[in-house]
Design brief:
alpha/beta; 2 domains; 7-stranded parallel sheet; 5-stranded mixed sheet; elongated
Length: about 240
């Protein structure tokens, strides 16, 4: 059954106009009135709907029922990802959504090749949030992970009141898996460096502000692999996968 995000109030009994992008997708799929759809708006529920009308630019649907379906991790994981080069961030965000992260915090670090500020940063953030929507449609999540504004790593690590922060580093004396085996499931922020890693000064600043340095084991993982592997490892140990 096709599944789409609709940024509008949804409830059983409503007839709604579907977003233009959804109408276009339905037209491409050649779905006809009477087809069954699944809709969600990020409130945590899913809605079964029937397509009433569709053409190239417009479509409407009647919502028949609300379905309680919770597929979220039982603990909130924030992926604090230093900006990688090229389009790697799109892939990282897509996979992070699939494995269940609740938020993505893009970080500007000294060794980042990609530099984004001002309007370019705002446009890229909006694009990344659209990647979250598409990934959520595909993987069945009914809540949207939120992409934060790009922040300097020193400012981000200096904030108070954040979740426990884990700095993924080859210099960590204990692995994430070994640490997690003796910890209860809990909210975490996982910090992942860019292609060249965080600098020694950045790591020291993070540790001074309460971060815990842990490794991903004996192999060095790429920036686009480390965070996803870490969330999957926590899911295997703490449940929710």
């Amino acid at each position: 059954m096709p599944r789409f995000y609709c940024d509008t109030p949804l409830a059983a009994g409503l007839t709604i106009a579907l977003p233009d992008a959804v109408a276009h997708h339905l037209h491409v799929l050649r779905l006809l009135p009477g087809a069954q759809l699944r809709l969600f708006n990020g409130d945590g529920a899913e809605y079964v709907a029937q397509l009433d009308s569709v053409d190239k630019r417009r479509a409407s649907a009647s919502i028949k029922a609300q379905v309680a379906r919770d597929v979220e991790l039982p603990y909130a994981i924030t992926l604090a990802q230093a900006l990688p080069e090229g389009s790697k961030m799109d892939w990282i965000i897509e996979k992070a959504v699939e494995v269940g992260v609740a938020a993505i915090a893009p970080l500007a670090a000294q060794r980042c090749v990609l530099r984004l500020t001002g309007e370019r940063a705002d446009k890229r953030r909006a694009h990344w949030q659209a990647v979250v929507v598409a990934a959520s449609e595909q993987c069945g999540r009914n809540r949207l992970a939120q992409v934060g504004a790009i922040d300097d790593i020193r400012h981000w690590t200096g904030q108070q009141g954040l979740h426990k922060r884990v700095l993924l580093s080859p210099r960590g004396e204990q692995s994430l898996a070994a640490w997690a085996r003796h910890q209860p499931p809990q909210a975490l922020s996982l910090m992942v460096g860019p292609e060249g890693g965080f600098t020694e000064q950045e790591e020291e600043a993070a540790l001074a502000n309460g971060a815990l340095a842990l490794s991903m084991g004996p192999r060095i993982l790429r920036t686009e692999t480390a965070g996803i592997a870490a969330v999957a490892a926590l899911g295997a140990l703490w449940g929710g996968m």
